[in-house]
Structures are given as C-alpha cells and as structure tokens.
Amino acid sequence: QVQLVESGGGSVQAGGSLRLSCAASRNTNTRYCMGWFRQAPGKEREEVAVMYTATGSTYYRDSVKGRFTISGDNAKNTRYLQMNSLKPEDSAMYYCAADPCLTYSDYVKRIGPNGASFFRYWGQGTQVTVSS
Q1: Distance CA 104, CA 94 (A)
Q2: Is the pLDDT of residue 113 over 90?
Q3: Eight-state DSSP code of residue 82
Q4: pLDDT cut 90: percent of the chain above it
Q5: Which of 124, 132, 98 is nearest to 30 (CA)?
Q6: Which pLDDT score, from 0 to 100, does residue 74 have?
Q7: What is the pLDDT of residues 79-95, one digit of tens each?
Q8: How far apart are the first and last CA of the chain?
Q9: Is 51:57 a contact under the CB 8 Å cutoff?
Q10: What pLDDT does residue 28 have?
Q11: For the stretch 94-126, what's the b/e string if a residue is b when 16 or more beta carbons lie within 10 angstroms of its beta carbon?
Q12: Calpha distance 94→89 (Å, rounded)
C-alpha cells in the first residue's frame, strides 16, 4: 500500500507558475511509475505527466510539453509537478498516482490514453485554478 498526499494547488493568473507536490508514505524511488493526472468539471480525466523512477524516463501530454516538468526528491519520497506558463485550460483537480513498474514495458503501458487504469494508488487531489 502507498498513501499519496498532494499539495501546492491554488489560484494563479495566466502565465503564472505553481509547483505541486506528491508525498508518498513509502519508498517509491525504484521501479515505480509516478503520474500526474487532472480532471476538470464535465471533462474526462487526462494524463498529464508520468515518470519511471528506475530510468528517469518521462512522458508529457502534448498540451503541457515545454511548460510542465515532473521531478522527484528521493530523500523525501516526494514527486513534483512544476507548472509554468499556466493557461486557463490548465484549471482542474490534479491527482498524483503511483504503481510499481518492474520493467520499462510496465511504464509504457501506463502512458497514453488508457494509462490511468493501470495505476493502483491515488491521492486525494489538489485544485489548480488559472484565471485569464
């Protein structure tokens, strides 16, 4: 079992920045897929970014490439999502997710349209609101 706690959400103006944090209750530094997802009211959940901790490989959805960065602090068992140049369309509830990924193939399964279904552990979410 892994408990995940997100923090760092808030309200910012377009063009601003936020850094979301996801603290894990146990070591997720080796062979874990750590993901960030978001869901806006009335919309489907979107996969925003995923990191494979074994290799440092990262995935970003096209709309956030160049603006968002997923990273981690192994000593703190914490993952981050740095969000820059925020846009109103980035407004959503953001969720952290984790799942053991023993192989690179496991990571590949967890990126893309159906990736969320493979993540077993989820945080409670943190709200991000970007005003124009």
Answers
A1: 25
A2: no
A3: E
A4: 92
A5: 98
A6: 87
A7: 999 999 999 999 999 99
A8: 40
A9: yes
A10: 86
A11: bbbbbbebeeeebbbbbbeeebbebbebbbebb
A12: 13
How far is Cα 3 from Cα 92, in angstroms, rounded to an integer?
A: 21
With the C-alpha atoms ordered 120, 23, 59, 9, is the resulting torsion angle positive or negative?
positive
Question: CA–CA separation, 1 vs 120, rounded Å?
Answer: 9
pLDDT of residue 61: 96
CA 7, CA 18: separation in Å to the nearest integer?
10
Q: Say which residues have a Cβ less than 8 Å from residue 14's Cβ, sequence separation at least 6.
A: 86, 87, 88, 130, 131, 132
More confident residue, 57 or 27: 57
pLDDT of residue 106: 95
* β-pair partners for 27: none
Q: Which two structure tokens, joined as six digits, stand for 100?
A: 């053991």
Q: What is the DSSP string of 84-100?
A: -S--GGG-EEEEEEEEE
Structure tokens at 59: 């995935």
List alpha helices for the chain, DSSP H: 104-109
28 and 53 in contact (C-beta within 8 Å)?
Answer: yes
Indicate the pairing of strand 121-122 with strand 4-7.
unpaired
Given the structure tokens 């952290």, which residue do they identify?
A: 96
